[in-house]
Design a protein that fits this description.
Elements (H helix, E strand, L loop, with lengths): L1 H14 L1 H8 L4 E5 L2 E5 L1 H6 L5 E11 L6 E9 L3 E8 L15 E6 L5 E5 L7 H6 L10 E7 L2 E9 L5 E9 L6 E12 L6 E8 L5 E9 L1 H5 L9 E7 L4 E5 L7 H6 L10 E8 L1 E9 L5 E9 L2
Antiparallel strand pairs: 1-2, 3-10, 3-12, 4-9, 4-11, 5-8, 5-10, 6-7, 6-9, 11-18, 12-17, 13-16, 13-18, 14-15, 14-17
Length: 309
């Protein structure tokens, strides 16, 4: 009941409970008392389950050279260190129908100060036993992986092509200990957005000990990167959120078109009106956020997921 009380308070004050119940298909009851009229959901109160967490965070992106390498930032939040595996995939994407897959990705992991924690070219060169024990060994020897126990904080993973080569790559982080008192709080990946198969695709898997629902914000940023000095920033990104079957859940072009108040309450409003954002209530499962340029424009953009819980 204590957990539900926190959840109810969050929904009532942050999301608007009628909107939440309509979005998630939950019946609403109304009670009137000395504090006034309050909407609530007795069904949800009865069936409430704890929050899920990000078990996997990933981005498929066109990896170039120079400023167009793939840069993924993520946060480990909580009170305990978390054991994770970070992977950079490329050659194995060919088997999934990607014709211009990155043939030899290289991976670096940095802390919040920019200091290098670890790097890897071919995953069997280092930590082979640990990587195999995780059950997440890459399918191709040229792909990269790093296993580390990370204290709460901010981290950056950088993917490049060996010898300056380019192509579609996949950068991933997996939670190897979902029982730890810490979570992946977000992922934010900067990369070049092209057309067709060269769109940028962020992915996440929700699951863990909860089997409940999570409030997630997805964003696609472009123009504000130009203000930060990034060359070739995508001037008008669009955003689609899809489920594991590819079914469209929601889409957005300019974030103020709708959900403006909900997004502003989370202090995650994009800096430019042309940027995109979606706030969704999601059950356990796999999801993708697809970033494209409006009217097939191209440029450097960010795709982000935030675990609002």
């Amino acid at each position: 009941m204590k957990a539900f009380g926190r959840r109810f308070d969050f929904l009532l004050h942050q999301l608007s409970l009628p909107w939440f119940c309509h979005r998630f298909g939950i019946a609403i009851a109304v009670a009137t008392g000395i504090l006034g009229t309050v909407s609530f959901s007795p069904l949800y109160a009865q069936e409430f389950k704890p929050f899920d967490q990000f078990l996997n965070i990933s981005t498929r992106v066109l990896v170039g050279s120079g400023d167009n390498v793939a840069i993924a930032g993520f946060i480990v939040a909580g009170s305990e260190a978390k054991n994770v595996i970070i992977r950079a995939m490329g050659p194995s994407l060919t088997g999934a129908g990607i014709s211009n897959a990155l043939q030899d990705p290289m991976l670096e992991l940095h802390d919040s100060s920019g200091a290098l924690i670890a790097s890897n070219d071919n995953w069997k060169d280092t930590q082979q036993a640990e990587i195999q024990a995780s059950g997440l060994a890459p399918a191709d020897d040229r792909e990269s992986a790093i296993v580390r126990t990370l204290s709460p904080g901010a981290y950056t993973a950088i993917v490049r092509g060996k010898d300056g080569t380019g192509g579609i790559g996949l950068i991933e982080g997996y939670d190897l200990d979902s029982s730890a008192d810490s979570i992946f709080a977000n992922i934010s990946t900067r990369g070049f957005v092209g057309t067709g198969d060269n769109a940028m695709i962020g992915g996440l898997i929700l699951g863990g000990n909860g089997s409940g629902v999570n409030v997630v914000i997805a964003r696609s940023l472009g123009p504000s990167l130009g203000n930060a000095g990034v060359q070739q920033a995508l001037q008008d990104p669009t955003l689609e959120l899809r489920d594991q079957n590819g079914v469209l859940i929601d889409s957005n072009d300019n974030w103020k078109d709708r959900q403006q108040a909900l997004i502003e309450r989370q202090n995650l409003a994009p800096a430019d009106d042309r940027e995109s954002a979606l706030l969704e209530v999601l059950p356990a499962g796999a999801y993708t956020a697809i970033v494209r340029g409006k009217n097939d424009a191209t440029g450097v953009a960010l795709v982000e997921f935030y675990n609002i819980r």
